[in-house]
Amino acid sequence: MRILVLGGTSFVGRAVVNDALRTGAEVTLFGRGRTGPELFPNVPRRIGDRDTGDYTALRDDRWDAVVDVSGYVPRHVRQAMGALGDRVGRYLFISSQAVYVRAGVGPGSDEDTPRRPPVRDTEELTEETYGPLKAACEDDVSARYGSQATIVRPGKVVGPHDAQNGLTYWARRAARGGRVALPGRAEQPVQVIDSRDLARLAVQLLVDDRPGAFHAVGPAEPTTMAELINTCARVAGSQVEVVPVPAEAVPPFFPLIRPESMWSTQQRSPARARAAGMPATPLAVTVADVLAWDRERGETPLGHGLSPEEEAKLLAGT
User: Fold this and answer.
1) pLDDT tens for residues 210-222?
2) Model confidence over 23-67: pLDDT tens digits?
3) What is residue 167's three-state secondary structure?
4) How far apart are the first and last CA of the chain?
5) Is the pTM value of this prediction over 0.85?
6) How many angstroms separate the CA atoms of 61 and 292, rounded?
7) Residue 126 and residue 207: Cα distance in Å, rounded?
8) 3-class secondary-structure state, position 158
9) How far is 91 from 131, CA to CA, in rounded Å?
């Protein structure tokens, strides 16, 4: 199988390329050539730029499938599809759980959950526009490729090479041991998907030539924030005491923390994706690999969460 990956040297794309190569697929990368130039030295690259609309490098050749991990606004996917035309078999678009409505959705919701209205009049990515812009991208891919379109909607993706460092914060913090400040409630449900499970799903969907929409959510068993922190501690060989603190006492968008009104977004059904071949890496395995990667890179500053000094001050009042 010949697979074109639009953006394949960062996090999710990197995992997809690795899995595709594992299956023996012939992979081509498309991107600016700036991120991870040392990666995949034997994989051919087509140089272009989604932001400037330069897809000239894609106007020749054919591929059995394309995996688009770089489309965030409709212009991106329209230009890619315009350049590729009918020279690809299946178009797999990596979307987001953010496309769904947030109200009136209970635990166990599936891929038929109503989506938020698509947005096309802006390219500014904000908390309010990200999901609707992704929904518009989904619609454009489905309109152009019909039964040859596949949509994958990941939850929070975690694993080695995660630039957002969501799980990395908690793994690193739990490894230090002691009292751990948890902004919010210990019983908050959490869904994270190992990037390698997401990649395995995407490649399997291409191998099976399977259309439709699929949730990429994990881990294997439902978990809570307290359980996640304790899992991180067990893997690191440390002892922790999880101490809930007021969420309003920390900066917004704290790693993996969600308000209670959004807890149902952390309880979506993975059934359709599991039936299609998505594996379920145990959370402890993902944590161990994240810790090993983080230590290998030198535990660089994360840029979010609480510093030890901030956390100690917060815990002093509990």
Assistant:
1) 999 999 999 988 9
2) 999 999 999 888 888 999 999 999 999 888 899 999 889 999 999
3) helix
4) 58
5) yes
6) 40
7) 34
8) strand
9) 20
